[in-house]
Every structure is written in structure tokens, then in C-alpha cells.
Design a protein that fits this description.
Number of domains: 2
Largest sheet: 5 strands, mixed
CATH architecture of the largest domain: 2-Layer Sandwich
Structural class: alpha/beta
Number of helices: 12
CATH superfamily of the largest domain: ATPase, nucleotide binding domain
Order of helices and strands: EEEHEHEHEEEHHHHHHEHEHH
Distance between the termini: 38 Å
Strand order of the largest sheet: 3-2-1-4-5
CATH class of the largest domain: Alpha Beta
């Protein structure tokens, strides 16, 4: 590796997983690493610090680079736009990379998701993974958000919301009919390796990551909805309603983004049935923005923002290079890595 070659690092961090890539100013993606979540609202800050330091050191080792070779770090993490968390991240990364040679940017993980779809800084992104949020950046880089309040205060329309509604439906059915369950109850209990609905309490409340456990039920609810199970269909319908309501609120709140494309990100949007329900609800709400399902994961969106920070303009040739080198890394190095890498979004 040539000495003093400027490299760019992009990081996408959530509550259940974190990914980081390193690449060149020519848009060549050279390596990727992934590790545990880095959301300070899900685990102790010191544990998060150790995790990100370890991850970045692994990344540098993959390309035989040193800290002095890095010109830009663009880190997109859950809660990265909250000043208290931002200050911590800047302090931690400041110890890793010399301020004289490396510019560091900390922002919300929704920024990475947005750019992964638009390859620009502008647009609207709807994230429906473990959590949910609608995030918009207008042409003058004005930022606005709706949702993203976390599972205790919000996350309507998310995987967690769907799983929680499923468990509530089972509890209500059990209160009335006891052990005389239905197909919906039996299917969800089977995923949890349970036979008695009463055991859900122990399973959930004693689980080390109850939020992740509950959100994992969303896939089963979607499968039941695809099979025309009435309870599952209603839960998905309500989830989609909440997401579209977020968008409606955003368009009223920030009319300047009404013609911008909408990027769909997160594990729920990888399900065709969910996407079709969402599109139908948008149509009913007279929302006709162009929809984008990203070809690259959010971590590449973070890397692209790093390029922008270097003053590099996006071109079709640069976009092709990014996509081509990402796919090469993805196919050769990551095996089963999910291309969208967004199942845990968002974790605010």
C-alpha cells in the first residue's frame, strides 16, 4: 500500500449490528467488517467504545493501513444527532485519528440509509426495521425527522411494533379462550419454542435482548399475513398505516421535501407483501413520490458521505465504481452478509 494514501472510512452503527467499510477517494470499496451493536441506549457507553475501537482496528488491518492514512471518518449511528452522544463519539474517535489529518463527522444512522438509495445528500428515507423513523434532508441540507423515539416511546410500524402487537393479540386471545388457541397463536408460539401462552412472560422478560426477540416475530407475522391470516393482516395493515402517517406528517411539516424521492430501508421493506401494502396505502394517501429500494447497504451510504466530505462530486462513473467494488467485496468476503444490512434499523 502506498504511504500516506488518503483513505475514507464509513460506519453504520445500530443497536443489533455495526458495519464499517474503508475505501479510496476514487470510490473503490476495499474492505468491510461487522460486529455488535453500538447504540448507547442499548448497552453501556464503555462497551460501545470498546466495540467501535476494535472494529476500526480490524478494518485498518484488513488493508494494512495506519491511523495516519485516514483522511475522513463518516460515522452514522443510532442517536448520532443527539449532542450528548455526538460529543462522546467525537472524543472517542479523536483519540484514534489525529485531528490534524482526519476530519470526523458523526450523524444519525438514517443519513447512511438515505444516501444508500439516492447517492446524494437529499431525500426522504423511511426506515422500518427493528425500529422506525422518517428522516428528511432538504436541498439546503435542512434536517427533519418524524418518529425514531425508540421502543419505549414509539417505533410504530417497526418490526418491534409488529412483534409486540402479535404478542398482545395472543395474550388477549388467551385471556378469553385459555388454551383453546388458534393458528395465529400456535404459529407464534412455535417460533418461540413454547406451547403455553402463559410462558411468554418468562421468555420475554428474562431474555437478554427482549426488544430483538420481539422484533424477530415480525417475519412470522408477515408470513401469516401472506397466507391471509386475518389477525396478521390487520397487524401489518396498522404498521403500514403508522409509517404512511409519519410521511404525511413530514410532508406537512416540511413541504419543501414533497417532491423528493423516498428511500425504503430496513428489514420489513425486504418483504414483497409489506412493500405492496405500503405502496397501496401511499396511493390511498395521494402520496406519489418516487420510491427507491437501495442497491447497496447503508454502510456504503456512510462511505459516500465521506466522499462528499472530501469535496468529491458524485458522477455516474463514480457510482458504478462504488457498486462494482462493493459487490466484489460482498461476494468474495462476506458470504451470507445481507445486501441491505438494515434489519436493525433504526435504534433511536
Amino acid at each position: 500500500m502506498p504511504l500516506n494514501r488518503p483513505y475514507i472510512i464509513g460506519v453504520d452503527g445500530g443497536g443489533t449490528g455495526t458495519r464499517a467499510v474503508i475505501g479510496t477517494q476514487k470510490g473503490e470499496v476495499l474492505a468491510i467488517v461487522e460486529g455488535a451493536g453500538t447504540n448507547m441506549k442499548s448497552k453501556p457507553p464503555d462497551e460501545v467504545r470498546q466495540q467501535i475501537v476494535q472494529l476500526l482496528e480490524q478494518l485498518l488491518q484488513k488493508v494494512s493501513a495506519t491511523k495516519n492514512d485516514i483522511s475522513t471518518v463518516f460515522l452514522c449511528v443510532a442517536g448520532g444527532d443527539r449532542q450528548v452522544d455526538k460529543d462522546r463519539w467525537e472524543r472517542w474517535l479523536g483519540f484514534l485519528f489525529p485531528a490534524s489529518t482526519c476530519q470526523i463527522t458523526i450523524t444519525n444512522d438514517a443519513v447512511a440509509a438515505l444516501t444508500s438509495g439516492t447517492f446524494t445528500k437529499q431525500g426522504v428515507v423511511v426506515i422500518a426495521g427493528t425500529g422506525s423513523i422518517v428522516y428528511a434532508i432538504a436541498k439546503k441540507l435542512q434536517v427533519s425527522r418524524v418518529g425514531g423515539w425508540g421502543y419505549l416511546l414509539g417505533d410504530e410500524g417497526s418490526g418491534y411494533y409488529i412483534g409486540q402487537e402479535a404478542l398482545r393479540a395472543i395474550a388477549q386471545h388467551y385471556d378469553v379462550f385459555g388454551m383453546n388457541g388458534d393458528v395465529f397463536t400456535a404459529t407464534i408460539l412455535n417460533q418461540l419454542s413454547l406451547t403455553n401462552p402463559a410462558d411468554i412472560i418468562t421468555q420475554v422478560y428474562e431474555h437478554p435482548q427482549p426488544r430483538v426477540l420481539i422484533a424477530s416475530l415480525a417475519r412470522t407475522v408477515l408470513r401469516l399475513a401472506e397466507q391471509q391470516n386475518a389477525k396478521a393482516e390487520n397487524i401489518i395493515k396498522q404498521a403500514v398505516h403508522h409509517l404512511v402517517q409519519f410521511i404525511q406528517t413530514m410532508l406537512i411539516k416540511e413541504p419543501q421535501v414533497k417532491n423528493l424521492p423516498i428511500v425504503l430501508c430496513g428489514g420489513l421493506f425486504e418483504n414483497l407483501y409489506f412493500v405492496q401494502c405500503f405502496q397501496m396505502k401511499l396511493k390511498q394517501a395521494s402520496i406519489h413520490n418516487r420510491l427507491i429500494q437501495p442497491e447497496v447497504p447503508p454502510v456504503i451510504g456512510a462511505f459516500i458521505n465521506g466522499l462528499f466530505n472530501e469535496g468529491i462530486q458524485m458522477t455516474e462513473a463514480l457510482q458504478r465504481t462504488i457498486k462494482k467494488t462493493w459487490m466484489s467485496i460482498h461476494e468474495n468476503s462476506m458470504g451470507g452478509f445481507d445486501h441491505n444490512g438494515t434489519n436493525d434499523k433504526t435504534d433511536d
